[in-house]
Amino acid sequence: MSETGTVRDLLANHAEATFVGRKKELALLYKAFEESVPPISFVHGMGGIGKSRLLEAFTRAARARETLVVRLDCRQVEPTPPRFLTALGAAIGGDAPSIQEACDRLSEISRRVILLLDNYEVLRLLDTWLRQDFVPVLPPNVHIILCGREAPLAAWLCTPGWRGLFRSIAIEPLAESEAINLLAQFGIAEARARHINRFTRGHPLALTLAGITLAESEQSISGDLALHRVIEALARMYLAEIPDEITRRALEAASVVRCATVPLFRAMLPDAAPQDAFERVRSIPFVQMDRDGLRVHECLQEAIAQGLKAADPGRYLRYRRAAWHQFRKEVRGAPASELWRYTADMLFQFHNPIVREAFFPTGAHAAGVEPAQPGDGSAILDIVQQWDGPESKRCLELGGTARHRAFT
Fold first, then answer.
1. How far is Cα of residue 313 from the mean position of the Cα atoms in its chain?
2. Nearest to residue 166, comparing CAs of 174, 157, 175?
3. How far is Cα 380 from Cα 367, in angstroms, rounded to an integer?
4. Is the pLDDT of residue 221 over 50?
5. In whole angstroms, what is the distance from residue 238 CA to residue 232 CA?
6. List of long-range contacts for 339-345, beta carbons under 8 Å, 24+ apart
7. Calpha distance 234→227 (Å, rounded)
8. What is this structure's pTM?
9. At 72, which helix (H) or strand (E)?
10. Which residues have a Cβ under 8 Å from the Cβ of 231 and sit 6 or more positions away?
């Protein structure tokens, strides 16, 4: 072996060196090294959000602590109890034709065991069997980590007896500082990295693709064009995974509004069952359920909407008009506490870049907004003089600059 190690060693070292962020998620997973923690963790997030990189980092840390990590790719496991037990037995070094024999083999291992089931969404047919039959009889030295694109089924959280024994860990986009650190690995300066992150919204796969594509680009115009193409390619990749036309149409409709609700689906998709459309979109891994409704991941929302606008402008406009009329209809009877929500929904329909950036910023604001103080009168007059002219300044002086609280 050469002094630099094998290719596998080089790849592992590179993966470790280029891993950024995820301190909170790793801290939660590190609790799996303790026997007092819940016996099962569920890591979930949309494709490309960084689940695999997180699990690789966790696996390196676990093996450094001499913890045994048994990782099964669920795509290679037939979703039946016998085939699952066969795959598990092969991974832990022995036959395991029954649950009891599998548990006996696991209990014989003197170390802490992490059983990691990756790509768990394809093993959902076994979800009830795992929850009811397999997991409850595992020995105390075993911790299971389920990892997939879809959030855990409600039964894990609601079934009596599971309270305190199950931890759900949602993988979110990277913070702006983490996104900048990731792009710095491609030699991209901070100012340009901030610009790229305004498009990618902290999505690690989009950031990586953008970093690879734009590292050599020096011209902002060609760089922006390449960046748009990266996001469009990412959106097409996710849309291709949606199997049916009904769900794709519902997702496109949800992408032209701030948050999608059942009444909005009824208005935008008059030929579809609105509750069914809502549930279909809700099941998509990159769609999040918020207080106001369903929200498509920001990195993909604009790309999907613009793709629809380019491919079928008539349908795009029909969705927007239907949504606007629905907002106006609902706001008439909305309580005062909900008016802010409809204000946000309507402002989202404006495509003026200044308005959109002010109310729906694509990055961190460099400045905040605070009420003016009594000593700010002369500064206010100077600003009015510079930007609104001497006439406005005279009007303000006549009104009295002591009314500083009218300014922010």
1. 28
2. 157
3. 17
4. no
5. 10
6. 341/292, 344/258, 345/257, 345/258, 345/259
7. 11
8. 0.61
9. strand 68-73
10. 199, 200, 206, 299, 300, 302, 303
